[in-house]
User: What shape does this take?
Amino acid sequence: MRKTLLVSLFLFLAAGILSAKDIYVSAGAKSGDGNKNAPYNTISDALSTAFAGDVIHVSEGIYYGDGGGGLFLIKINNLTLAGGYNKDFSTRNPFKHKTILMRGVGNKSDSFDECSGRDHKKWHSMTPTKASYNGEAIVYGVGDHSNFILDGFFIDGHTRQTYKKNGDLKTDIGPITSPLVSLKSPGVKVRNCVVLNSGGFGIRVAASGKKDDPASMVEISNNIIVNTLMGALELRVGDFDPTNNPNGGLAVIKNNTIAFVWDWLGEGYGLLVGRQTKLTVEKNIFAFANLTAINNGFQNKFLKLVENVFWNNMEGVYKYWSPESKLTLIEDNVNKFGGKLAGKLALSKKSEKNVAIDPKFAKIDKDFFEKFSNQIKSTGGGKVEWDSVNQWRSSMGLPLVGSKGTGNKNFAPIYELEDAVLISKESSIKGIGAQIDGPFEAYSSKTESVEKTYQDASFDSMLANSALDQKDISVKVKIEGKGSSGDFWKKDAAPDSKYICFKLGKYPNSSFVYVLKGSEALKTIEEALKLKLEVKISGTAYSIKDTYKKDRVCIVADSAEMEEDE
Assistant: This one.
């Protein structure tokens, strides 16, 4: 008999996750073991030791990823990555304590020269990266990363790209069309981030929330997304299906500020709405998209627009497909976004209270705005209200631009990070767009101790002893392979939505072990399977006589230990 202290996590709706922990990271610290007093100095180190249910707390500073490559790979479910802490982790304000994710500057190139010309040495390293090129997102979800929370980071893409001598973005090199954040799993949440200088969309997620299941809800809230190519928010993909998944496809987009979207390859929107989605878009600011603020070209009638602010989007406010005229149309009258006319515009009838008004941002990048406004005026200006633009220019000390523009054309230059926190001064829209004064979520891997005593058992005893039912046992076994969805014989204790099944032994002398997704036990068991080694599994045994029709038990794993060679 041996006694082991296990920990069960009850964090949000992820009950049952074992051994969850809080991990701390601080740029410039001597690399410790990840606790608050001895934090890791890279996020990559924290990610390599994290498992489902863990919370990674990151203090202010700049983080480049392994080798400076600007890649933060998320492949764990129920993980939280929270930035915006001060150096001793005593306070958290993501918009004050800048926690920056970006690529190193690469080799000496136009990007390097552009950074040098802008005196970026004052806030980020000019040392060339040692990493290979990252063509994916900076925060990139792979595999099952369901319920991942990203909260409190500045995510800057300018060092991934190259620029011409006049400051224009080059589109023939670099990760053009790649977003800065790409997450595909259900339940992901992006909060309190500033996303800027993207060579593609700012944030790409899949709308896969389920009605009446808050844990599955996809959320993009209280972010500032500025200076992106093709679009700011991409929800092109969802899992709504009127026959097979009528309650799916949900996502909430709330209190975001979106500004300065450049068009490329026929796209340039604040929000791209996919066909298989059900989006609630509430209290956001959409300003200065080269095309429209919202593109609903798939005629998605579930789109709900509530209390949003639209301003100076060059092609107009809302683009939609009209089956009656068989044309793509643009509607600028926000008073039509709801009620009896909603169906005609491919909108939910619950849409309401949207306005078109100047948000009057308190501070923006002067050099960038001069180039942006010169560009849109010199290419026609579209539906931009030019008097308001000249008021902005005048307040910054820039010359007014006449009816013919300046003749200067620019394209997606760098927007300075110091000026990226766009806050509205317009009192009539208080509470709309990103809010920078909090309160902000206080994350913790809230744990409670559960003491278990494991009884040593043999695999043979599992095959012929239902008396082990609901006993805590330890057994040394060899994993034969992964089970299928049809091998979940104890779904009340190990539902297939949260666990992975592995086969023990060969049929007919076989049983099963169920392992929590994203857990340390899962990593160990997968490694044992790969190396064809025995592994000692500790967990609770359950009879499967009623379902599997054989007198034996399975095991729901708490932990796993693989013997290593000395």
